[in-house]
Amino acid sequence: MTPRHPRCSCGFPEDAVLVAAIAEANAVQQQRVMAHLRHCQVCAHLFAQYQQVQNVLTCLQATREFDQPLQRAMENLQRRRSSTPGRLSYQRVTSALGELYIASSSRGVSLVAWPPQASRLLSTRAHHEDRTSLHTLAVELTEYVAGHHTQLDWPIDDALMTSPFQRQVLHLTASIPYGAVMSYQSLAAALGRPQAVRAVAQALRRNPLAIVIPCHRVVGRTGHLTGYAGGLDTKRALLAQEGIPLVTRRHGVFIDHTRMFVGWRSSHYYCRPECPSLGELTTGETLLLSSRALAAQPDFLPCDVCHPGIVTV
Amino acid sequence: MQSRGVNQCFEQLVTQHHREIYLYIARLTRGSQEAEDLFQETFLRAYKAYTRLPEAANTRAWLFKIATNLCRNHFRYLKRHQGVPMHEALAAVERSRSNGHGAAADDPAQTVQSHHMEQQVLEIIAGLPLKQKAALVQRKLHGLPYDSIAISLQCSQDAARAHVFQAIKKIRTALELAPNRQRQRHRPNGHRPTRETL
Questions:
Q1: Could you tell me if A207 and A107 lie in one domain?
Q2: Between A262 and A214, where is the model more confident?
Q3: Confidence (pTM)
Q4: Same structural domain for residues A256 and A191?
Q5: Tell me: the pLDDT tens digits for A294-312?
Q6: Residue A120 distance to chain B (closest CA, Å)
Q7: Most-buried pick from A203, A297, B8, B173 (CB within 10 A)?
Q8: Which of A223, A255, A244 has its CA nearest to residue A180?
Q9: Are residues A286 and A176 in the same domain?
């Protein structure tokens, strides 16, 4: 085992020699070491080596080679800083789904969340309460929650999202249409990372833009509602309002698979819930759609096996 | 008003320290391309957290702390995603020796030799554990006081001093070993040393 305070073969502490050689010793220590060095060859050799290291380190202080990259880095930093939004203005909104916070920056809406998460996210930025400029947003939000609108076309500021991965997940989630649901697994598959199911779920859990980015439209593979930042009852209410059929089972609330059309995001086909081809296909990027009208959007074609476009009387 | 005041203070902080922070990151990451990203990220993070920083805080140490933590994250990322192990000091010397730097040591030109030695030392520093590397760079290349280093590395001043000393000792040992091995290779009887004899 190496001793805690190594000594030279002559018994003199090595650290004292080191401190003196790298010019960090006080006058007394320096004198003591110098006196010892006069009659100890081993320590003198050690001292010379440490002094050499010190000299090399001094040479390494030169910085000319860094000038150009530093200038470039600085320019990029200034550009990125000017594009970062400044203060957030926020307002409290009382809706049918309880008390919500809504905040926006100069670039767009950056936060819609329930109190505990909202205050945590707001604390990361300079913020102030503003009841006038956010009034229109607040009214639109309460109307959406009450079911008067099916869309919130707001400019979004993703500054409160924490990582590039989370941005990717949430931007994809924003593309799930009203009245449709997707599973965490399908979302991960659509991102091209089928293994990242839990990471996707965590990214959604920290969604700073609840309702606006519809993370409530993402459910478990079995259709289980799993969880929600605003509480499971809120998730159930939001989904029910969008016309998504729900069933209550022993283990919780589930999406009723048997009454939902299935859309394939990559191939752009859609099937009836009872289509025989569904069993053969693996869980890919599927979207569960609550109605035929929604399924028959311009970009979805009816499946050749179950002909979901034909309405039987 | 208040926001403008904060912005001005922060601007001043950037002007004052951007150079040394960039140098610090570039030295820790050996001037890799990530240095620029890490540098920008350091100041963006600092900007986000600046309003929460107490008045009396040592802002220089605080910036070094953010930079060190980001570098640590970066090294962790590299370790996980590229399978690059954290090199040991001696392994680094081994590499620098096999790169043929050893031949330059015999060169009579003083400048070439000292340049070679600088490269060797940089190689050794790159292989040190992060705390030792950070402490050494902050102390010896940036001339920071130990109390500042202690804040940025979240350790005591004595620990910071110990990190610097450990780093210097490792550099000395590595430098001492390297030329000796070189000499052995040039032995006239043609005996090639095995790993055991080294």
A1: no
A2: A214
A3: 0.55
A4: yes
A5: 777 767 888 888 888 776 6
A6: 14
A7: A203
A8: A244
A9: yes
Say if A226 falls within a structural domain: yes
In a domain, A139, yes or no: yes
Map tokens 């600046």 to a residue: B50
pLDDT at residue A5, as a whole number: 66
Q: Are residues A136 and A225 in the same domain?
A: no
Per CB-CB distance under 8 Å, the chain A contacts of B171 are: 53
Q: Are residues A198 and A242 in the same domain?
A: yes
Same domain? A257 vs A180: yes
User: Is the model more confident about A61 or about A241?
Assistant: A241
How far apart are alpha carbons A29 and A17 in whole angstroms? 9
Instruction: Extract the tokens encoding A25.
Output: 């010793």
**Integer Cα distance of A189 and A196 in angstroms:** 8
Residues of A in contact with B167 (CB under 8 A): none
Token pair for residue A257?
């698979």
For B184, other C-beta atoms within 10 Å of its C-beta total: 13
A28 Cβ partners below 8 Å, 6+ apart?
none
Q: What's the CA gap between B69 and B78, in Å, rounded? A: 14
A256 found inside a domain: yes
- Name A156's bridge partners: A109
Contact B176 A84 (CB under 8 A): no
Residue A91 shares a structural domain with residue A136: yes
Provide residues of B within 8 Å CB-CB of chain A: 3, 6, 14, 18-19, 22-23, 26, 31, 35-36, 39-40, 43-44, 47-48, 51, 114, 117-118, 121-122, 136, 140-141, 165, 168-169, 171-172, 175-176
Residue A77 within a domain: no
Same domain as A280, residue A179:
yes
For residue A91, the domain's CATH number is 3.30.160
Q: Can you give the pLDDT of all 198 residues of chain B as single tens digits?
A: 445 567 788 888 888 898 899 999 988 888 667 888 899 889 988 988 888 888 888 999 999 999 999 999 888 888 777 654 444 434 444 444 444 444 444 444 556 677 788 888 888 888 899 999 999 999 988 889 999 999 999 999 999 999 999 999 999 988 887 754 444 444 444 444 444 333
| Overall number of domains in chain A | 3
Residues written for chain A: 313
| CATH at A262 | 1.10.10.10
Contacts of B39 in chain A (CB under 8 A): 73, 77
